[in-house]
Amino acid sequence: MREISMKTRTMEKQNVSDNRYKYLDRALARHQYRSDALIEVLHTTQELFGYISRELLIYIARSLKLPPSKVYGVATFYHFFSLEAKGKHTVTVCMGTACYVRGALNVQLAIERACNCSMGETTEDKKVSLQTARCVGSCGIAPVVIYDDDVAGYVIPEESAQHMRIWLEEQE
Amino acid sequence: MTLEELYDIGQGFREQLSAFKAEIHVCGSGGCASSGSLHLKEAFEKGCEARKIINDVRIITTGCMGLCGAGPLVRVHPSDSLYIRVQQDDIDRILDSHILKDKVVKDLLYPNDGPFFAKQMLIALKNMGRIDPESIEDYIAHGGYEALAKAITYYTQEGVVLEIRNSGLRGRGGGGYPTGLKWDIVRRVSSAEKYVVCNADEGDPGAFMDRAMLEGNPHAVLEGMAIAGYAVGATQGYIYVRGEYPLAIERLRKAIKQSERLQILGNRILDSKFNFRIDLRIGAGAFVCGEETALIQSIEGQRGQPRPRPPYPSQVGLWGKPTLLNNVETFANAPAIVLNGGKWYSRIGTEKSKGTKVFALAGRITNTGLIEVPMGTSLRDIVFEIGGGIPDNGEFKAAQTGGPSGGCIPIQHIDTPVDFESLTQIGSMMGSGGLIVMDQTSCMVDVAKFFMEFCKDESCGKCIPCRVGTVQLFRLLEKMTKGEATDQDLDILEELCVMVKDTSLCGLGQSAPNPVMSTLHFFRTEYDQHISEQYCVANVCNLHGKNRAVADDSETVPRTEET
Q: In A, which residues are within 8 Å of B245 by CB distance?
């Protein structure tokens, strides 16, 4: 892991114009800096920052008095935590059994073609992040795609590709 | 808060309800919400305002009403009419005809005794889709927390455990361990601290029972946990819920707050000496955390890796203390058992599997949705009557139960009664309740590959048979779907399945080969075709079928091996 001094961390702190670190500190205090609150703290961090950067991992490790290796280990063990910045939009293709049986693979391929990158990646212009989900529990309306926070059911491949094109053509 | 006060709350709320001339319940669960039910609610409100009847009609969002495939669903009282596929333009008709003139809109109606409902029996799902999940008063008005009050007031700890034992209830998470026995073990261990943990880490792809229950009736789960807490002598409960279910988390948080406000949870519950708190722990997307020892690790803030048992969590569990760990549905059954008695429950179901089971019907089936049937109902009834058969003139090929740990059940076993033993006997398992129907468009080798990919990704990496074995199994299956496999690969596949099953540390690895073994058993012809003819009968695998230029019709029906 890259060496990050305290100086970089405080610099990052200053760069952040909002109060995200303050909220994180509050969450840490609420859990009384107990090391067993690690997963809860990682959840909060991801909610605040969108992802968990290396700087944040080290910050959490120091705060909870845990070795960074442990924090890194837990953060990478669970799929929910992302260690890389996400694009402006996120498209999630559900790959649960019901969706799979109803043709989720074709939806996935259509989206990948439209975005010209594969699942787990972000487009070069950082507009769309592609990911798959294990099952979002909306099996009744399979196949399911989640566009940012909107759950869409009975998805047709071409329709989801169109959705991607609209996102990709969006102006800043 | 006393028992009388609890009754008063229920009575008061019922009186409030009787002041309304009509009620409109809009289903707000996963499927319906994404087909636009939340806009429907607003439109109903606007429509009522325009007709100046907004104060006479109670409009609420409820949990899942079951028939997810025909959403958005709306239920109108009085007359208890369920309307399906309700669109914006239907709203005026429902308001003008049903609400104002009391005339049911027939073409939107799904009859309450229709095939989807006729063979169902609701215990765990009883109030779901009929109450406002965000109102504790509504739950109490429907008999909620009465069982907890009854348990605390009239029963000893042993008494509650005895009722659960008499009921014959078995763990609904998939294992089927007798619940009463588990409760008794935890009760008997002497320890100042004990925990009750609810496993709501619904990881099986294609299953959404727990999600629907937590979103649709969160108080039922809290009540079940509190009853368990009283019975085993625990003062702290945890619900380990999937991070992928934000609405369930929100509803649970709200429900816990409401119960604490009314002193139904917290200190001196219902003026007794019993204290019980419930906290949430949010999962972070690891299938293995459904395994009890891994789940406990995860609550403690560690990687979710299982450990060998014994000692079982009922003796050495969370923070090393005795811990009662049950699934959402198991807890949701507890209030009904305490209220009606264990004997009542044991009359439902089969000899060894008592009560009802909730299933999530999905895949190639007409009525996708959430159902609850008595144990022993045949798979045929579930698929063809309740489920309405296969859409688009498709042909039933297999029903998959138990998720990545289960197996595929072919047509010749369609009359199998659904209970723990019968499903295990035919190489599948009950699992937590996901039931995926497949038709001729599914390739069974590809399905096996799909589940193996899942297991390989979700293997925690602690034991070698699972970590390495699942990857090797996946590669072999991948080779087959690419038409590059040899007969020798098939032999290795079979051998490896047995090895991984016998030597893995936890349930994930031990059951990971199940989908392969069951498809090998029932659909071996398809494996052979992939290997020797480079031919995929469902045309999923994109093989060229070198030895078979054109497939004739008779070959599109899978030939299955008789057992």
A: 137
| Contact list, A77 vs chain B (CB under 8 Å) | 286, 303-304, 460
Q: Which residue has the tokens 């280990």?
A: A73
Closest residue, chain B, to A37 (C-alpha): B301
Angle between helices B218-232 and B209-216 (to 10 degrees): 90
CATH number of the domain residue B242 falls in: 3.40.50.11540
Number of domains forming the structure of chain B: 4
Strands B323-327 and B356-363: unpaired
Residues B384 and B452 in one domain: no
Across B271-287, average pLDDT: 95
Whether chain A has a CB inside 8 Å of the CB on B281: the answer is yes
* ipTM for the whole predicted complex goes beyond 0.90: no
Find the domain containing B311 and state its range. 143-346
A73 and A93 fall within a common domain: no
Q: Are residues B386 and B336 in the same domain?
A: no
CA B387/CA B66 separation, integer angstroms: 11
The C-alpha atoms of residue B232 and residue B157 are separated, in whole angstroms, by 7
Instruction: Please tell me the distance from the alpha carbon of residue B367 to that of residue A97, in angstroms, as a whole number.
Output: 16
Percent of chain B with pLDDT over 90: 90
Q: What is the DSSP string of B245-288?
A: -HHHHHHHHHHHHHHHHTTSSBSSGGGSS--BEEEEEE--S-GG
Instruction: Answer whether B398's CB lies under 8 Å from B442's CB.
Output: yes
Q: Residue A128 falls within a domain, yes or no?
A: yes
What are φ and ψ of residue B415, in 5° steps?
A: -90, 5
Predicted local distance difference test score (pLDDT) of residue A16: 53
Classify B174 as helix, strand or coil: coil
Domain boundary among the residues B390, B412, B439 is at B439
What confidence tier does B543 reach under pLDDT thresholds 50, 70, 90?
A: confident
Going by the DSSP 8-state scheme, the letter that residue B558 receives in this structure is P
Q: Which chain A residue lies closest to B289 (C-alpha atoms)?
A: A78
Q: Which two tokens stand for residue A116?
A: 């010209």
B171 reaches A (C-beta below 8 A): no
